[in-house]
Amino acid sequence: MIDPSNKISTPQIKSAVSLLNAGDLYSGAYNFMSSISAGVDPRTGAFSASVNLPTGAANDLRGPISHLRLSHSPLMTADQGFGQGWMLGTTSWDGASQQLQLNSGERFRGEIVGQNMRFPDVRLPVVAVAVQRQEMWVRHNDGSCERLIPLAGHSSLWVVSTLVGADGSALNFDWRSVGNGAYLQKVSDARGRTVLALSYEGQQTRLTLQPDTPAQVVMSFHRVSGQLRRVTVDGLPDSGWQFEYTRSDSG
Length: 251
Fold this sequence. Notes:
Blueprint lengths: L15 H7 L13 E5 L6 E8 L12 E6 L13 E3 L3 E3 L4 E3 L5 E3 L1 E3 L2 E3 L8 E6 L2 E6 L4 E7 L2 E11 L5 E9 L2 E9 L4 E8 L2 E6 L7 E8 L2 E7 L2 E7 L9
Antiparallel strand pairs: 1-2, 2-3, 3-4, 5-6, 5-13, 6-7, 8-9, 10-11, 11-12, 12-13, 13-14, 14-15, 15-16, 16-17, 17-18, 18-19, 19-20
């Protein structure tokens, strides 16, 4: 017999931030807090920095995990919504400059010959590229491959649309054309679940990891006059990073 005086308690669902503050949560997503690296190239004196953006495991933890990296270079003038010179390290092909950028940050000059791409400056290429009409397949040595398609409105700029892991599990990337640049909108798995979403609101870009789940984490990238100045994490007001820029002209 059930005693009606005994109340069944419903567990309270807490946010990832509140659990982190209480010390009750371990999440790989919060490795972001220590994933900013920066340095100066002693050969050129140029400053560079990068921010790792972990998406977390998708497809019921089968993966693949997309290791997005936001990198800054003073030689870059483009803006993908994070500030001038800050670029997402996704695989892309620029037909105008004939350059293939890999998700590792490496760049290679390529030539499309028939249905393949050759790299005249590399003796042992790290990838194999096959070109089939309006799609390009980039196959990596670890067994993963990426499907690139032309960005809408920019036939010479190809962006990654699908990342397929060695076991066949996939992630899908949605992009939007803004001016001459490609703005990432979201990353979703094969089941249609969004694992990373971005919104661009004036001088602020909000990046949400694992949206609409208890493990949700929201990062904000604040720009001033087109330059990234602050990176913050919602719910952690005392944690964040600030960036200042100076130009040195040598005589």
